[in-house]
Specification:
By secondary structure, the chain is mainly α. Helix 1 packs antiparallel against helix 3 and helix 1 packs parallel to helix 4. The longest helix is centred in the first third of the chain and has 29 residues.
Length: 165
C-alpha cells in the first residue's frame, strides 16, 4: 500500500494538533500561576495513589498521539460528510475542555471548577467515542485508554480538591 505525501502531512497535522494544544495549555497555566505544573503538583497534598509528576507528560503524549490518530482515521473516511463533521465537533469540543482543565487546575488553582470541567470532558469524550464508533470502530477503540485515564484523573482531582480545601 502506497501512502501519499498529502496523507502523511494530514496524519502529522492530526497528531500534532492535540500535542500542541496540550503544550499551549501547559504554558498558559505556568504564565497564570507563575510556577510550572510540576512544581505546583509537587507542593500539593496528594492521596497515596497519586503518580509521580513525571508520569503525566508521558501519558498525555501517548494519549494525544492516539487522539490525533483517531481523528485522522475519521477525517479520512469517505462516509457521510455530515457524520464526520458531527463526530469532529465532539472531538474539538472535548479538546477545548481538555485545554481548559490545566489552566483551571494549575493556572487559576480552581480545583473544584477543574473537577467539573473533567466531568464534562468525560461525557464529551464518551459521546465522541460513540460518534467515532458509528463511522469507524477502530477510531473509537483508540480512545479507550483516554477514558480510563480520565476516570483516574477525575478520582485524583476529587481527592486533591478534597484534601487541599
Amino acid at each position: 500500500m502506497i501512502i501519499s505525501v498529502k496523507e502523511v502531512k494530514k496524519y502529522i497535522c492530526c497528531v500534532l494538533a492535540p500535542i500542541l494544544i496540550g503544550i499551549l495549555s501547559s504554558m498558559l497555566s505556568k504564565v497564570i500561576c507563575g510556577v510550572g505544573m510540576a512544581t505546583y503538583y509537587h507542593e500539593l497534598i496528594k492521596p497515596g495513589f497519586a503518580p509521580l509528576g513525571i508520569i503525566f507528560p508521558i501519558v498525555w503524549t501517548v494519549l494525544y498521539i492516539l487522539m490525533g490518530t483517531s481523528s485522522y482515521i475519521i477525517l479520512s473516511q469517505k462516509k457521510s460528510e455530515c457524520k464526520v463533521k458531527d463526530a469532529m465537533f465532539y472531538y474539538w469540543f472535548q479538546m477545548g475542555l481538555n485545554f481548559l482543565w490545566s489552566i483551571l487546575f494549575f493556572g487559576f488553582q480552581l480545583r473544584l471548577t477543574a473537577l467539573i470541567d473533567l466531568m464534562l470532558l468525560l461525557i464529551f469524550v464518551l459521546a465522541m467515542i460513540y460518534k467515532f464508533y458509528k463511522i469507524k470502530p477502530t477510531s473509537a477503540y483508540l480512545n479507550i485508554p483516554y477514558v480510563f485515564w480520565l476516570i483516574y484523573a477525575l478520582v485524583l482531582n476529587y481527592y486533591i480538591w478534597f484534601i487541599n480545601k
